[in-house]
Specification:
Oligomer: single chain
Shape: globular
Strand content: 15-25%
Distance between the termini: 27 Å
Helix content: 25-40%
Radius of gyration: 18 Å
Order of helices and strands: EEEHEHEEEHHEHEHEHHEEEHHH
Number of strands: 13
Number of helices: 11
Largest sheet: 9 strands, mixed
Length: 305
Amino acid sequence: MKPVVILGVFVADTSYRAARMPRLGETVLGERFVLGPGGKGSNQAVAAARLGVETHMITRLGDDAFAGMALATWAEAGVRPAVVRDPDSYTGAAFIFVEAGSGDNAIIIAPGAGGRIGLADIDAQAALIRRAGVFMTQLEQPLPAAARALLIARKAGVRTILNPAPAQTLGDDVLGLCDVLTPNETEAEEITGIRVDSDEAARAAAELLLGRGVGAVVVTLGARGALYHDRERSVVVPSVSAGPVVETTGAGDAFNGGFAAALASGVDPVEAVRFGCAVAGISVTRPGTAPSMPTRAEVEALLAR
C-alpha cells in the first residue's frame, strides 16, 4: 500500500455553540466554547492516518503555541509532518459557530502561515508527492501551490483528489489534473453554475465537470449520502448513520480522508465512497473536527451491521 500525501492547512478551531448567530452589533450568550485542532487538510490527514494508512501532511506553520497543537495532534493520529516553520507569520485559526438546535455550522478561516504556501514549498516535497498512492489537496492554501502539486502527482501517475473547498472559480487547466473532484452541493454549484438541489442536478453538474477534464466526480449530499459519477457509472451511495447527530463540523473532511484512505488501500471507487460515508457518519456523532475521526475498526464495525 502506497501512502496518502495531503497538502493543506492546519488551523486551531475556536468553536462557539449558541442558539443562533448574533446579528452585527449584537452579543449573544453562548452555551459552550471548545479550542481544538482543525483545518481541512489537517483534518483529512488525521482521518486517513487513524484508518491505518501511512499519511503525510505538507504545510506551513507559525512558530507559536498553535503550531505545537498541530504537531501534537498529528503525533497522536500517526500523521507524518512535512512542515516548514514560518516565524514571519502565525499558525492559522478558525471561528466556528455551531447552531445548538441543529448542529449546523458557519466558519471563518484565517490561514496564517498556511496561506503563504508557495511553489518552492511544493517543489521541496516533490519526491514525497511522487511516491504517494493518493495525493489530495483543497483550496485553503493558495491555488498555484495546489495546482503545482497536482501536476507533480499527475506526471508521476499518482491518483489525484481535489476537494474544492472553500469554493472558488477553477479553470480547466486545474480541473484536468484531477482524477477525482469532491465538491459538496454548494461547491459544485459555485464551479458549474448548476444549482445542486436534487440527485439529478448533482449528476448534471458532475457531467459538466467530466466535460471539463475531471476523471470522476463525487458530490457529497449531506444527509442523503454522496453521488459517484464517472464516464461509466453514476451511483448515489446512501449516508451511513452511526447515531444521533451531535455536530456536522468536519464531516466533509472525514469523508474525504476516509475516501482517500480507501482508494489507497485498493478499494473500488464506489466502495471507497461508501467507506467515506461511514467515516463521516461516525464523525458527526461526536463534537469537534480532528478529535471526532474514527478508527478503521469502528468504521468496519459500522459497515458490518
